[in-house]
Specification:
By secondary structure, this protein is α/β, with parallel strands linked by helices. The chain has one domain (9-91, 100-117): Rossmann fold. Helix content is 34%, strand content 24%. The chain is built from 4 helices and 7 strands. The chain has helices at 17-29, 41-48, 68-77, 108-118, and strands at 9-13, 33-38, 55-59, 61-62, 65-66, 81-85, 100-103. The strands form 2 sheets. Strands 2-1-3-6-7 form a 5-stranded parallel sheet, sandwiched between helices. The chain has a two-stranded antiparallel ribbon with strand order 4-5. Helix 2 packs parallel to helix 3 (68-77). InterPro entries: Bact_response_regulator, CheY-like_superfamily, Sig_transdc_resp-reg_receiver. The modification 4-aspartylphosphate is found at residue 59.
């Protein structure tokens, strides 16, 4: 990324308010812009209709509801994403076997490395 490239826009799909706040504060320090956030599948799908998104961080479990419809929508739009979960890769359906997974709880370096892995090499 050169200095003239815009910061990648990250969409946060997470139902834990404190984690959303943490990511909204952390992502800009890592060179990203927060493109918005949603705490439910319904709200995330609605926001994706109009949001300009380059990457997404998607919690697997949104208040007891799986976020897989959001991941499907992101894939259909060609938007790279990573799942966050406390359950690991084994909690994902087969169609997401190749998806990036970030284990909760995660540290700053973990999210930084995971997001960097989603971006194509410059």
């Amino acid at each position: 990324m050169t200095t003239t490239d815009p910061a990648p826009r990250v969409f946060i799909v997470e139902d834990e308010f404190l984690l959303v706040m943490l990511l909204e504060d952390l992502l800009p320090t890592l060179g990203y812009t927060v493109a918005g956030s949603a705490g439910s599948v319904e709200h995330a799908l609605a926001k994706l209709d109009t949001a300009e998104v380059d990457l997404a961080v998607v919690d697997v479990n949104l208040a007891g509801e799986p976020s897989f419809p959001v991941a499907d929508a992101l894939r259909a739009r060609g938007v790279p994403f990573l799942f966050t979960t406390g359950y690991g890769q084994q909690g994902l359906p087969e169609r997401f076997a190749d998806a990036a997974v970030l284990a909760k709880p995660f540290r700053r370096q973990d999210i930084q490395d995971a997001l960097a892995g989603l971006r194509p090499a410059a």
